[in-house]
Every structure is written in C-alpha cells, then in structure tokens.
Design a protein that fits this description.
Distance between the termini: 28 Å
Oligomer: single chain
CATH class: Mainly Beta
Largest sheet: 7 strands, mixed
Radius of gyration: 14 Å
CATH architecture: Beta Complex
Number of domains: 1
Structural class: mainly beta
Helix content: under 10%
Bound molecules: zinc ion
Shape: globular
CATH topology: Metal Binding Protein, Guanine Nucleotide Exchange Factor, Chain A
Length: 128
C-alpha cells in the first residue's frame, strides 16, 4: 500500500496495489501548476481512497481534464481525464519507500528554456 498527502495534511490518500512508474511531464500546464515539471504515477481510480479530503479542490484545467490540489497549502496532487477510470498522482506527495522509479520524460518539446533535462539515461518523448 502506498500512502501520500499534501504538505499540510488537509488531503491524504491511500493506494492499493501496484502503481505505474513515474513520468515527468514538461508540458506548459504541468510546468505552471507545479512550478517546474510534474512527476506523477497513475493508478485505477477505484484503487485510490481519499482518507482526508477537507482541503481538496479541483481546477478544470482543460476541456477534457481537471487537476486536484490542496486549497489550504496549494500542493499539486492529482490529474484526472474526463471519462477515464485512472487518476494521476503526484510522485512528490507519496511517502517513501514508494518502490517506484522515474521512467521517462514526456512533452519535452514544451519544456522550459531555463533547464536541460538531465543525463539520467531515460527516454525523452517530444509528446506522449
Ligand atoms: Zn494541504
Ligand atoms: Zn503535463
């Protein structure tokens, strides 16, 4: 079981079973919402259970998806596509040991111009 929370604890959750390897997304939305790029895992929605949700708020970030965040501390937590049964969850919100590894960089053509993606040997995908 994985557990995670926002910075202040007003949102916390548990994940049952395996989670996808972590993906670093460099798209413009993930950069704006996270402050740099957004690293997330993904799990079936029915395997994630919110244990504290007093702070949880949603922002409709596009016409097909919304982003969950903590309205108290501002932590970026979730990304959810309409009609999909999966949810993306911030890697940084998870408690160690996660057992997960960073797998790839995506949407790198939209990365910020102030950094290079490190020589971590992982695939860089222009889009997804
Ligand atoms: Zn919080
Ligand atoms: Zn993104």
């Amino acid at each position: 079981m994985l557990t995670g929370s926002c910075l202040c604890g007003a949102v916390a959750f548990e994940i049952e079973g395996p989670a996808r390897p972590v993906t670093a997304c460099h798209c413009g939305q993930c950069r704006k919402v996270s402050g740099h790029f957004w690293a997330s895992t993904e799990v079936p929605r029915d395997r994630m259970r919110l244990t504290v949700e007093t702070g949880l708020a949603w922002y409709r970030s596009s016409d097909f998806a919304r982003r969950g965040f903590c309205s108290r501390c501002g932590a970026t937590l979730f990304w959810e596509m309409d009609g999909d049964d999966r949810i993306s969850v911030s890697g940084g919100a998870l408690e160690a040991p996660t057992g997960l590894t960073l797998e790839k960089h995506i949407f790198t053509r939209w990365k910020g111009d102030y950094y290079e993606i490190g020589a971590d040997g992982l695939p860089h995908l222009d889009e997804y």
